[in-house]
Each structure stands twice: as C-alpha cells, then as structure tokens.
TrEMBL record:
Domain called Outer membrane protein beta-barrel: residue spans: 8-168
First and last residue of the signal peptide: 1-19
SUPFAM superfamilies: OMPA-like
Keyword Ion transport: no
Family annotation (Pfam families): OMP_b-brl
Name this polypeptide is given: Opacity protein-like surface antigen
UniProt keyword Signal present: yes
Superkingdom of source: Bacteria
Coiled-coil features, chain-numbered ranges: none
Gene3D superfamilies: 2.40.160.20
Keyword list, A-Z: Signal
Amino acid sequence: MKKLIVMCMLAIISMSAFAQTQQGQSSFGFNIGYGFNDNGNALLGLDYRYNLTDEVRLAPSLTYFVKDNGLSAWAIDMNVHYVFKLSDMFGFYPLAGLDLSFWKASVSGDWNGNHVKASANTTRFGANIGLGGEVYATDQLTVGLEFKYNIIKDFDQPILGVRVGYNF
C-alpha cells in the first residue's frame, strides 16, 4: 500500500504545470469553508490575487458567513501572501492582513403570547494571520487550502477554506 501511495504522489508531482506566482499575474477565485466560532458558520467567498513581485501578492476578498443560529456576517479582507514555490506545481504561503466585518444577530420567538423579532448589527475591525498552500493544476487553474485565524473583538475564530482559482 505504501508503494502505491508513493507512486501516486510521484506521478502527481511529475505532472507538468507551472507556478502562477510571477510578477504582474492575477487570479480570481471562489472559496468555501467553515468558521469555527462559538456558533460555527459555513462561508462562501470571492477573492482576487495580484502578484506585486514573484513572491509577494495582495489578496483582497469578500466573504459571507452563512446564517446559523441567528448569526451571519459579511467580511472584507485585505491580506498579503509571501509565496514560497516548493516546485513548479506546489506553493506555500504565510499570510497577514486586515479584516472589516459586519455582523448581524437576529432572534425570533414567542413571548407573552406575542411573536417577537429582534436583531442587532455590529461592525468590527480586525486582523488575519495564517498559512495556505496551493496546487497549480494547470496554467489557468489553481486549487488551494488555507487556514487563518481571524482576530476580532468578540468574534475571534479560526477559519479553514478551500479555494479554486482562475489565473490570468
């Protein structure tokens, strides 16, 4: 079994693809993931990545935390990645950045025979730190996994996401 796994890994590594981290290149991607806060929210997002240099890229993103137990949010992030090319097919990057999130909590229920609805909104400014990795499947397609910790007053949370991106 070990030999089969090693052979599969070598076959994948030897496939010809090129790292999409050259200065001036861009990527547009779709993200899905999960925020491990007290509530636990699934997330959907869009991002854009622009390579300032072969190693440094800007990565603004827009993320929606799907409503769960009355809590949902929109987040705007501006992260910076420092990409280490492990091969022509794999890349690894630490990330750091800023976050602006708009949280909404809503509840509804019956009280004294009346149906009551209440909601509250709050805006928070925070920071992100994390790590990511990506596979350059083709010249135009990138698949990646990213883990980041979102540092926000009252809403700190680790986030795990998967990204599929189109490179141009």
